[in-house]
């Protein structure tokens, strides 16, 4: 078994499942927006320590095909009806906080209005455990077990967020005196 024996660190993932704004816009306008937006977003994401940024497009024809697969296989799947899923991968939520505070990022997000339904977006936050990469099994030890840290460690959401700033010493001492 080809494998990585080193224990992988926790990789966090934030996904935003987005519906397309149904306002009239031409395909050429949507294509231009998407390609310009992506180049700007990718540069900013990398600048702020995002390890991976990707978009997954799920147009109606793909959703219909998946629904047919489900029907034929008698699976009963509920087919997600979002048009786009945006995925951010990072090690600490501080990277997401950093990009979110960037005025250039905020300006870029403001340009989404004509193309993205700004009201109805579904978000998910979790961690990734990858076991196959480029067709090879990874993160399985010689003992046949996952090399990832325990669920307790990976699931500690507090460790994903930066620690709050410490209170100034004078304020703490003053609070202790009360």
From TrEMBL:
Top-level taxon of the source organism: Eukaryota
Pfam family membership, one: EthD
GO terms for MF: oxidoreductase activity
Gene3D superfamilies noted in UniProt: 3.30.70.100
Domain EthD: 27-115
Family statement drawn from the similarity comment of this UniProt entry: Belongs to the tpcK family.
The protein's name: EthD domain-containing protein
